[in-house]
């Protein structure tokens, strides 16, 4: 009798476990659909905002050109504000589109030579590098399997930030290194910039978060959010260490794909 009761208990537990697993799978699918719908909504809204914003900027620029001599100093200043605000908004929308498109559950992986990728990024950032008299060094990097666009976005954002948030007294000095473990590559982008307070370590990865005024450090506050989303979509993680006034080290892991 006891044996029969034990078997019945096991059957009930298996049924309950199966029901719980089915419910969990259902919730996961609902969450996946919600995330996809949210990203699709953000993408559509961003696209729809582009056209009226482009028109607004174009008409403001026409007003600036055709009526420049007729406008007094204050109205000319107002027109400049409209144009500059339109440009900032366009940049935010473009970054939002990148953010919405950078999360993929099955990215097209290819074997990438990180040395070649970084060399091209430094060419693309040449004006910014020369303007700030920045020096950038990096190790002899491996070839890894990744999506080329994704990896470019991560490195370019980290390097651009290292140049942007420079010290007033020192030219930017950036060192990018890599270590290998059994399962991951660990990259580090270290700089000698203004640094980040420990209380802001988590906040800086939130979308549109800014720690400084736009006037002092222009930008949309979405670059690190893009980095985090890309890296986590591959199963990696990103974190930082920093000393205000000394510099910052951003670390991220990238899995080894066979």
TrEMBL record:
Catalysed reaction equations from the record: ATP + protein L-histidine = ADP + protein N-phospho-L-histidine
CDD domains, per database record: HisKA (cd00082)
Coiled-coil regions listed: 1-44
Span of domain Histidine kinase: 44-258
Matching SUPFAM superfamilies: ATPase domain of HSP90 chaperone/DNA topoisomerase II/histidine kinase, Homodimeric domain of signal transducing histidine kinase
Domain of life where this protein originates: Bacteria
Keyword DNA damage: no
Gene3D superfamilies, A to Z: 1.10.287.130, Histidine kinase-like ATPase, C-terminal domain (3.30.565.10)
GO molecular function, one term: phosphorelay sensor kinase activity
EC annotation from Swiss-Prot or TrEMBL: 2.7.13.3
Enzyme class: transferase
TM regions (residue ranges): none
Annotated keywords: Coiled coil, Kinase, Phosphoprotein, Transferase, Two-component regulatory system
Name by which UniProt lists this protein: histidine kinase
